[in-house]
């Protein structure tokens, strides 16, 4: 009798334990979040994702984007004839809501799809909007971003001089998760939009265009002293494309209003090292910062007679020079919460000797040998910082 009772008790405990395990497993399944990896779960062409009224951001320390069950994200393919694709099915909409079910499964337009299957039929269209806010005298602030339905979402803003065809600065935000981005993307072409009138910026930046511009200012064949296959004036991003997570946001940085002529070795060397270092530094500090990236002055090169001449890449119909090559590039990084800031300044030339460089310096270099800036590792000394 005692043995039977013990057996019954053991079976009861076993059944209760099984029920508890079953309950926990099923409860976990019901509450399972959607977890999206930037490296695996985003398709191409990628839509614009709006979450809680703003561009969707990475929200985990390991670079994933998570949703609670039934949470939504707005998916949009702005622009004429843009439509959302769900796998092989083309919807009749340019904007829809995606509802998290679990893991990478979402419900969109009454269809159950893997998140990677949510795409656009062609690349979404980003635009610029001129504001009434002025900067650098009577120049205006232009916002670059995407118009989703009736709302324009600004990604970054640029202070642009239409007469000189010069962007004074671009303002954007860096967060601790700015180190993460979607992988496997092809480098998109730059766009002019409607910002530059009759000037074809693609032609301005071509090597033939640079040769013509430098020879016109410095003298016949003088461009040979500066332009090579490894050294030329590149379309230097002001707001870095690597500062953004998803393909649509990355594409929006490829607007000529977000560029300035920057010598290639400096662009791919010290300047790229600064951009990468800042992302890692902001991640380590754990707070958001505002970044102003800009240009100042016009660089000079000696002409045939040895006289220093300001360098521009274009002249209008009246032979007025525009598209100046900046003398300086800078980044001002401002932490509003800590009320601290740092400025990094680079001379945009690898052609100057030490004597000339010393005449152009107006502040002390406190980066080298300073433990506060040990996170900043220069790639080369092509530019002077």
Keywords:
alpha+beta, Extracellular Endonuclease, Chain A, seven-stranded antiparallel β-sheet, 6 helices, 21% helix, membrane
Structure description:
With 385 residues, the protein is α+β, with helices and mostly antiparallel strands. It folds into two domains: 34-120, no CATH class; 127-373, Extracellular Endonuclease, Chain A (3-Layer(aba) Sandwich), CATH 3.40.570. Helices cover 21% and strands 34% of the residues. The chain contains six helices and 24 strands. A seven-stranded antiparallel β-sheet has the order 12-13-14-15-18-23-24, covered by helices on one side. The protein has a six-stranded antiparallel β-sheet with strand order 3-2-5-8-9-10. A hairpin with a 2-residue loop joins strand 9 (105-108) and strand 10 (111-114). 33% of the residues are buried. Mean pLDDT is 91; it is low at 9-15 and 17-31.
């Amino acid at each position: 009798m005692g043995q039977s009772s013990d057996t019954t008790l053991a079976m009861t405990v076993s059944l209760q334990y099984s029920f508890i395990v079953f309950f926990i497993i099923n409860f976990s399944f019901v509450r399972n979040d959607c977890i999206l990896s930037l490296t695996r779960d985003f398709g191409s062409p990628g839509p614009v994702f709006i979450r809680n009224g703003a561009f969707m951001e990475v929200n985990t320390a390991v670079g994933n984007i998570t949703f609670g069950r039934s949470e939504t994200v707005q998916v949009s393919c702005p622009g004429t004839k843009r439509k959302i694709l769900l796998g092989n099915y083309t919807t009749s909409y340019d904007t829809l809501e995606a509802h998290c079910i679990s893991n990478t499964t979402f419900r969109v337009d009454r269809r159950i799809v893997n998140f990677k299957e949510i795409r656009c039929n062609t690349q979404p269209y980003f635009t610029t909007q001129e504001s009434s806010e002025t900067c650098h005298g009577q120049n205006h602030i232009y916002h670059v971003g995407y118009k989703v339905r009736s709302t324009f979402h600004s990604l970054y803003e640029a202070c642009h001089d239409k007469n000189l065809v010069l962007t004074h600065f671009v303002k954007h935000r860096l967060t601790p998760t700015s180190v993460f981005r979607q992988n496997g993307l092809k480098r998109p072409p730059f766009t002019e939009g409607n910002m530059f009138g009759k000037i074809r910026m693609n032609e301005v930046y071509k090597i033939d265009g640079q040769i013509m511009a430098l020879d016109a200012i410095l003298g016949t064949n003088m461009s040979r002293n500066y332009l090579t296959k490894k050294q030329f004036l590149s379309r230097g991003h002001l707001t870095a494309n690597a500062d953004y997570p998803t393909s649509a946001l990355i594409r929006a940085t490829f607007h000529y209003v977000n560029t300035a002529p920057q010598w290639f070795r400096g662009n791919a060397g010290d300047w790229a090292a600064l951009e990468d270092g800042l992302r890692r530094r902001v991640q380590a500090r754990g707070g958001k910062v505002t970044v102003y990236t800009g240009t100042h002055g016009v660089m000079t090169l000696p002409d045939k007679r040895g006289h220093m001449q300001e360098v521009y890449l274009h002249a209008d119909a009246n032979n007025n020079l525009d598209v100046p090559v900046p003398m300086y590039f800078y980044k001002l990084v401002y932490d509003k919460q800590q009320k601290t800031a740092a400025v990094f300044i680079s001379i945009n030339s690898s052609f100057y000797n030490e004597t000339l460089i010393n005449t152009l310096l107006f502040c002390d270099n406190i980066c080298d040998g300073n433990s506060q800036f040990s996170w900043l590792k220069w790639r080369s000394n092509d530019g002077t910082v």
